[in-house]
Amino acid sequence: MLRGTDTRRTRARRPLPSLRQQYHEYVLERIETYKNSLGRSRLMELGAEAAADLQDSGAEQFLLTEVLMQEAVDKLIIRRLKLPAFSRWKQTFANMRKAQREPTRWGLEPDCVLAALLPRIEPEDIVVVVGPGAEPAAYLLAAHDASVTFIASDLGAVERVESGFANEALAATAECYFVQPGCWLPDFGGPLDLVVLDAGSLGEVEPTVRARFVDELIRRTTGGGMHVLLPGSSGLAPEALVSMYDGWSADQVARSRRRGSARKSTGVVLTCPGQEPSTEAAES
User: Fold this and answer.
1) Is 223 in contact with 198 (CB distance < 8 Å)?
2) Do 272 and 202 form a contact (C-beta atoms < 8 A)?
3) CA distances from 258 to 51, 107, 109, 247 (A)
4) Beta strand pairing status for 268-271 and 221-230?
5) Which of 115, 122, 224, 268 is the S-S candidate for 238 at Cβ 3.0 to 4.6 Å?
6) Per-block mean pLDDT, blocks of 10 residues, the chain (284 long)
7) What are the residue ranges spanned by the domains of the chain?
8) Measured between alpha carbons, how far is 243 from 258 in angstroms, rounded to an integer?
Protein backbone atom coordinates (compact mmCIF):
# COMPACT_ATOMS: atom_id res chain seq x y z
CA MET A 1 0.00 0.00 0.00
CA LEU A 2 1.60 3.25 -1.11
CA ARG A 3 2.36 5.66 1.70
CA GLY A 4 4.00 9.04 2.18
CA THR A 5 7.00 7.38 3.86
CA ASP A 6 8.25 3.98 2.82
CA THR A 7 7.68 1.72 5.83
CA ARG A 8 7.85 -1.46 3.78
CA ARG A 9 11.55 -1.75 2.91
CA THR A 10 12.46 -3.77 6.00
CA ARG A 11 9.65 -6.30 5.48
CA ALA A 12 10.66 -9.53 3.81
CA ARG A 13 8.33 -10.27 0.90
CA ARG A 14 7.99 -13.64 -0.77
CA PRO A 15 8.06 -13.54 -4.56
CA LEU A 16 4.82 -13.81 -6.46
CA PRO A 17 4.10 -17.34 -7.67
CA SER A 18 5.11 -18.07 -11.25
CA LEU A 19 2.52 -18.78 -13.92
CA ARG A 20 3.41 -22.46 -13.66
CA GLN A 21 2.81 -22.39 -9.89
CA GLN A 22 -0.48 -20.56 -10.34
CA TYR A 23 -1.60 -23.11 -12.91
CA HIS A 24 -0.66 -25.98 -10.60
CA GLU A 25 -2.62 -24.36 -7.77
CA TYR A 26 -5.59 -23.83 -10.07
CA VAL A 27 -5.66 -27.49 -11.10
CA LEU A 28 -5.25 -28.77 -7.52
CA GLU A 29 -8.05 -26.53 -6.25
CA ARG A 30 -10.42 -27.65 -9.00
CA ILE A 31 -9.62 -31.29 -8.26
CA GLU A 32 -10.21 -30.89 -4.51
CA THR A 33 -13.45 -28.98 -5.09
CA TYR A 34 -14.69 -31.80 -7.31
CA LYS A 35 -13.74 -34.46 -4.76
CA ASN A 36 -15.50 -32.57 -1.97
CA SER A 37 -18.68 -32.48 -4.06
CA LEU A 38 -18.83 -36.29 -4.17
CA GLY A 39 -20.13 -38.71 -1.58
CA ARG A 40 -18.01 -41.53 -0.17
CA SER A 41 -19.56 -44.19 -2.42
CA ARG A 42 -18.94 -42.09 -5.53
CA LEU A 43 -15.34 -41.51 -4.48
CA MET A 44 -14.87 -45.27 -4.12
CA GLU A 45 -16.26 -45.76 -7.62
CA LEU A 46 -13.86 -43.14 -8.91
CA GLY A 47 -10.95 -44.95 -7.29
CA ALA A 48 -12.02 -48.27 -8.81
CA GLU A 49 -12.30 -46.66 -12.24
CA ALA A 50 -8.83 -45.14 -11.89
CA ALA A 51 -7.43 -48.54 -10.85
CA ALA A 52 -9.01 -50.13 -13.90
CA ASP A 53 -7.40 -47.50 -16.11
CA LEU A 54 -4.01 -48.32 -14.60
CA GLN A 55 -4.50 -52.03 -15.20
CA ASP A 56 -5.52 -51.36 -18.80
CA SER A 57 -2.35 -49.32 -19.29
CA GLY A 58 -0.26 -52.33 -18.30
CA ALA A 59 0.84 -51.19 -14.83
CA GLU A 60 1.97 -54.09 -12.63
CA GLN A 61 0.00 -54.80 -9.46
CA PHE A 62 2.94 -54.11 -7.19
CA LEU A 63 3.17 -50.61 -8.62
CA LEU A 64 -0.35 -49.67 -7.53
CA THR A 65 0.83 -47.64 -4.54
CA GLU A 66 -1.25 -45.00 -2.80
CA VAL A 67 0.70 -42.26 -4.57
CA LEU A 68 0.15 -43.85 -7.97
CA MET A 69 -3.56 -44.29 -7.27
CA GLN A 70 -3.82 -40.64 -6.20
CA GLU A 71 -2.21 -39.52 -9.44
CA ALA A 72 -4.51 -41.77 -11.46
CA VAL A 73 -7.62 -40.38 -9.72
CA ASP A 74 -6.43 -36.80 -10.27
CA LYS A 75 -5.81 -37.44 -13.97
CA LEU A 76 -9.29 -38.95 -14.29
CA ILE A 77 -10.83 -35.86 -12.67
CA ILE A 78 -8.82 -33.55 -14.93
CA ARG A 79 -10.25 -35.34 -17.96
CA ARG A 80 -13.79 -35.18 -16.60
CA LEU A 81 -13.56 -31.48 -15.83
CA LYS A 82 -11.83 -30.88 -19.17
CA LEU A 83 -9.21 -28.70 -17.49
CA PRO A 84 -6.91 -27.02 -20.02
CA ALA A 85 -3.25 -27.94 -20.38
CA PHE A 86 -0.74 -25.36 -19.15
CA SER A 87 0.06 -24.04 -22.61
CA ARG A 88 -3.61 -23.32 -23.39
CA TRP A 89 -4.31 -21.98 -19.90
CA LYS A 90 -1.33 -19.60 -20.18
CA GLN A 91 -2.66 -18.18 -23.44
CA THR A 92 -5.93 -17.15 -21.83
CA PHE A 93 -4.53 -16.19 -18.41
CA ALA A 94 -3.52 -12.61 -19.29
CA ASN A 95 -6.96 -11.73 -20.68
CA MET A 96 -8.67 -13.45 -17.78
CA ARG A 97 -6.63 -11.57 -15.18
CA LYS A 98 -7.19 -8.27 -16.97
CA ALA A 99 -10.95 -8.80 -16.78
CA GLN A 100 -10.74 -9.84 -13.12
CA ARG A 101 -9.03 -6.57 -12.22
CA GLU A 102 -12.09 -4.58 -13.24
CA PRO A 103 -14.60 -3.85 -10.41
CA THR A 104 -17.52 -4.45 -12.77
CA ARG A 105 -16.36 -8.07 -13.22
CA TRP A 106 -17.50 -8.66 -9.62
CA GLY A 107 -20.67 -6.59 -9.71
CA LEU A 108 -19.08 -3.45 -8.25
CA GLU A 109 -19.64 0.05 -9.58
CA PRO A 110 -16.74 1.42 -11.64
CA ASP A 111 -16.52 4.44 -9.30
CA CYS A 112 -16.85 2.49 -6.04
CA VAL A 113 -14.61 3.14 -3.06
CA LEU A 114 -12.37 0.18 -3.81
CA ALA A 115 -11.87 1.26 -7.40
CA ALA A 116 -10.32 4.51 -6.20
CA LEU A 117 -7.92 2.55 -3.96
CA LEU A 118 -6.74 0.02 -6.56
CA PRO A 119 -3.83 2.18 -7.86
CA ARG A 120 -2.39 2.07 -4.34
CA ILE A 121 -2.39 -1.72 -4.09
CA GLU A 122 1.02 -3.36 -4.43
CA PRO A 123 1.70 -7.06 -5.06
CA GLU A 124 1.66 -9.08 -1.85
CA ASP A 125 0.00 -6.36 0.24
CA ILE A 126 -1.49 -8.18 3.22
CA VAL A 127 -5.25 -7.78 2.99
CA VAL A 128 -8.07 -9.08 5.19
CA VAL A 129 -11.63 -9.12 3.88
CA VAL A 130 -14.37 -9.63 6.46
CA GLY A 131 -17.97 -10.72 5.94
CA PRO A 132 -20.16 -12.04 3.10
CA GLY A 133 -21.05 -8.56 1.88
CA ALA A 134 -17.38 -7.93 1.06
CA GLU A 135 -17.01 -11.07 -1.07
CA PRO A 136 -16.55 -9.15 -4.37
CA ALA A 137 -13.70 -7.19 -2.75
CA ALA A 138 -11.88 -10.43 -1.94
CA TYR A 139 -11.85 -11.50 -5.60
CA LEU A 140 -10.97 -8.03 -6.88
CA LEU A 141 -8.02 -7.57 -4.52
CA ALA A 142 -6.72 -11.10 -5.11
CA ALA A 143 -6.77 -10.35 -8.85
CA HIS A 144 -4.46 -7.40 -8.08
CA ASP A 145 -1.96 -9.86 -6.54
CA ALA A 146 -2.64 -8.87 -2.94
CA SER A 147 -2.25 -11.59 -0.32
CA VAL A 148 -5.92 -11.90 0.63
CA THR A 149 -7.44 -13.66 3.63
CA PHE A 150 -11.24 -13.87 3.63
CA ILE A 151 -12.90 -14.46 7.00
CA ALA A 152 -16.57 -14.77 7.92
CA SER A 153 -18.81 -16.30 10.58
CA ASP A 154 -21.01 -17.70 7.80
CA LEU A 155 -19.61 -21.10 6.85
CA GLY A 156 -21.55 -21.11 3.58
CA ALA A 157 -19.92 -17.83 2.57
CA VAL A 158 -16.46 -19.15 3.45
CA GLU A 159 -16.97 -22.28 1.33
CA ARG A 160 -18.42 -20.22 -1.55
CA VAL A 161 -15.47 -17.81 -1.60
CA GLU A 162 -12.98 -20.66 -1.29
CA SER A 163 -14.54 -22.28 -4.36
CA GLY A 164 -14.62 -18.91 -6.12
CA PHE A 165 -10.89 -18.42 -5.59
CA ALA A 166 -10.25 -21.87 -7.04
CA ASN A 167 -12.53 -21.45 -10.06
CA GLU A 168 -11.06 -18.05 -10.89
CA ALA A 169 -7.41 -19.20 -10.51
CA LEU A 170 -6.95 -16.80 -7.57
CA ALA A 171 -6.17 -19.35 -4.87
CA ALA A 172 -2.38 -18.97 -5.15
CA THR A 173 -2.46 -15.74 -3.13
CA ALA A 174 -5.72 -16.15 -1.21
CA GLU A 175 -7.19 -18.24 1.60
CA CYS A 176 -10.37 -18.45 3.69
CA TYR A 177 -11.20 -19.00 7.36
CA PHE A 178 -14.38 -19.54 9.35
CA VAL A 179 -14.12 -17.02 12.20
CA GLN A 180 -16.53 -16.05 14.95
CA PRO A 181 -15.98 -12.38 15.96
CA GLY A 182 -14.30 -12.08 19.34
CA CYS A 183 -13.04 -15.68 19.47
CA TRP A 184 -9.94 -16.09 17.29
CA LEU A 185 -8.07 -14.58 14.39
CA PRO A 186 -5.53 -16.42 12.24
CA ASP A 187 -1.97 -15.38 11.60
CA PHE A 188 -2.16 -13.19 8.52
CA GLY A 189 1.58 -13.36 7.84
CA GLY A 190 2.44 -9.85 9.00
CA PRO A 191 0.98 -6.40 9.71
CA LEU A 192 -2.16 -5.65 7.72
CA ASP A 193 -1.97 -3.17 4.85
CA LEU A 194 -5.68 -3.15 4.11
CA VAL A 195 -8.85 -4.38 5.82
CA VAL A 196 -12.18 -4.45 3.98
CA LEU A 197 -15.03 -4.91 6.44
CA ASP A 198 -18.68 -5.68 5.73
CA ALA A 199 -20.16 -3.55 8.51
CA GLY A 200 -23.59 -5.10 8.09
CA SER A 201 -22.26 -8.55 9.02
CA LEU A 202 -21.48 -7.27 12.52
CA GLY A 203 -24.99 -5.96 13.14
CA GLU A 204 -26.10 -8.92 15.25
CA VAL A 205 -22.82 -9.30 17.14
CA GLU A 206 -22.94 -8.29 20.81
CA PRO A 207 -21.47 -4.73 21.07
CA THR A 208 -18.56 -5.59 23.40
CA VAL A 209 -17.59 -8.56 21.22
CA ARG A 210 -17.87 -6.42 18.10
CA ALA A 211 -15.64 -3.76 19.65
CA ARG A 212 -13.01 -6.33 20.64
CA PHE A 213 -13.03 -7.84 17.15
CA VAL A 214 -12.62 -4.51 15.37
CA ASP A 215 -9.98 -3.40 17.87
CA GLU A 216 -7.92 -6.53 17.15
CA LEU A 217 -7.97 -5.74 13.42
CA ILE A 218 -6.97 -2.18 14.25
CA ARG A 219 -4.06 -3.33 16.43
CA ARG A 220 -2.76 -5.57 13.66
CA THR A 221 -2.83 -2.83 11.01
CA THR A 222 0.44 -1.20 10.02
CA GLY A 223 0.95 2.55 10.23
CA GLY A 224 -0.44 4.11 7.07
CA GLY A 225 -2.63 1.07 6.42
CA MET A 226 -6.29 1.51 5.60
CA HIS A 227 -9.68 0.12 6.64
CA VAL A 228 -12.59 0.21 4.22
CA LEU A 229 -15.97 -0.10 5.95
CA LEU A 230 -18.62 -1.21 3.47
CA PRO A 231 -22.39 -1.27 3.89
CA GLY A 232 -23.95 -4.70 3.88
CA SER A 233 -27.40 -5.61 2.65
CA SER A 234 -28.66 -5.09 6.21
CA GLY A 235 -27.37 -4.50 9.72
CA LEU A 236 -24.96 -1.79 10.78
CA ALA A 237 -24.09 1.16 8.58
CA PRO A 238 -20.34 1.78 8.14
CA GLU A 239 -20.63 5.08 10.01
CA ALA A 240 -21.66 3.18 13.15
CA LEU A 241 -18.13 1.78 13.47
CA VAL A 242 -16.20 5.01 12.92
CA SER A 243 -16.13 5.90 16.64
CA MET A 244 -13.87 2.86 17.24
CA TYR A 245 -11.14 4.39 15.08
CA ASP A 246 -9.74 6.96 17.47
CA GLY A 247 -6.97 8.97 15.82
CA TRP A 248 -7.56 7.55 12.35
CA SER A 249 -8.13 9.97 9.48
CA ALA A 250 -10.96 9.80 6.94
CA ASP A 251 -9.84 9.38 3.34
CA GLN A 252 -11.54 11.56 0.75
CA VAL A 253 -11.91 8.69 -1.74
CA ALA A 254 -14.95 7.63 0.25
CA ARG A 255 -16.91 10.59 -1.09
CA SER A 256 -19.08 9.84 -4.07
CA ARG A 257 -17.96 11.36 -7.35
CA ARG A 258 -21.53 11.43 -8.59
CA ARG A 259 -23.54 14.59 -8.33
CA GLY A 260 -27.23 15.00 -7.85
CA SER A 261 -29.53 13.40 -5.30
CA ALA A 262 -28.26 11.91 -2.07
CA ARG A 263 -27.08 8.33 -2.28
CA LYS A 264 -26.85 5.50 0.18
CA SER A 265 -23.46 5.35 1.89
CA THR A 266 -20.87 3.74 -0.37
CA GLY A 267 -18.52 3.15 2.52
CA VAL A 268 -16.01 4.79 4.80
CA VAL A 269 -12.24 4.76 4.24
CA LEU A 270 -9.97 5.35 7.23
CA THR A 271 -6.18 5.60 7.40
CA CYS A 272 -4.16 4.36 10.35
CA PRO A 273 -1.77 6.80 12.06
CA GLY A 274 1.92 5.91 12.01
CA GLN A 275 1.98 3.43 14.87
CA GLU A 276 3.66 0.07 15.36
CA PRO A 277 1.05 -2.65 14.77
CA SER A 278 0.44 -5.60 17.07
CA THR A 279 0.46 -9.13 15.67
CA GLU A 280 -0.73 -10.84 18.84
CA ALA A 281 -3.83 -12.96 18.46
CA ALA A 282 -7.06 -11.86 20.10
CA GLU A 283 -7.90 -13.54 23.38
CA SER A 284 -10.91 -15.80 23.31
Assistant:
1) no
2) no
3) 62, 18, 12, 29
4) antiparallel
5) 268
6) 42 67 88 86 85 68 66 89 91 90 94 90 93 96 95 94 90 91 88 96 92 95 95 84 94 56 71 67 42
7) 19-87, 103-271
8) 26
Domain spanning 103-271: which CATH class is it, in words?
alpha beta
Residue 128 forms beta bridges with which residues?
Answer: 149, 195
Do the Cβ atoms of 217 and 179 come closer than 8 Å? no
